[in-house]
Amino acid sequence: MVKRLQGLFLFLCMLIPPPAAEAAELELHELVGKGEHIIVMRHAVAPGVGDPPQFRPEDCATQRNLSPAGREQAARIGTRLRAAGLTDTKVYSSQWCRCLETARLLGLGPVIELPLLNSFFRSRDREREQMDGLRRWIEGADLKRPVVLVTHQVNITALTGIFPSEGEVLVLRREPAGVRVVARFQDN
Q1: Are 166 and 44 in contact, with CB atoms under 8 Å apart?
Q2: Fewer CB in 10 Å around end: N or C, the chain?
């Protein structure tokens, strides 16, 4: 009788859907490396908003940078992406130090600076031209292999309408009319 109850319990447990985190990992695994898809990520935790007035892209000392928690977060996200099958890919990054460091800590492949991913937070007059350029870049990108973009909140919001958390990963599908968000993954 006890064995029957144990068997019934195990059977019922199999009917219960997996926790959200496991479901998300399964979905991420299905989407990674799929043709016509691109992964866009907001840089990991970098305390503050915007950049100081003396900001210079080539000088990390003048910028907001990743905190120790941000470095751990970027490495953790890289581990998740590699576990989902994302390896040996091109990672394009904003030239801001917090994005470049995030991109390197992901450990997914070579990091290539892409100025179209630079923040326009302090220069909103650049938004339209820069986003048009990024859309053209995405339209022409070779997406047969996985591509990762590491950028800023303002860029992701302008591209998708979503205000992402630090370290949030979005999977976009390239379509004739632009891009469509097909999944979002937050670091928990």
Answers
A1: yes
A2: N
**Structure tokens belonging to residue 26:** 């399964």
Query: Which regions of 18-168 does DSSP assign to beta strands (E)?
Result: 37-42, 90-93, 111-113, 147-151
Domain ranges of the chain: 36-45+59-185
Q: Phi and psi dihedrals of 136, rounded to 5?
A: -65, -40
pLDDT in tens, 132-170: 999 999 999 988 888 999 999 999 999 999 999 999 999
Name the architecture of domain 36-45+59-185: 3-Layer(aba) Sandwich (3.40)
For range 92-115, the mean pLDDT: 96
Distance (Å, rounded) from C-alpha 102 to C-alpha 66? 8
Q: How far apart are CA 78 and CA 180, in angstroms?
A: 23
- Do 90 and 108 touch, CB atoms closer than 8 A? no
Cβ atoms < 10 Å from Cβ of 21: 10
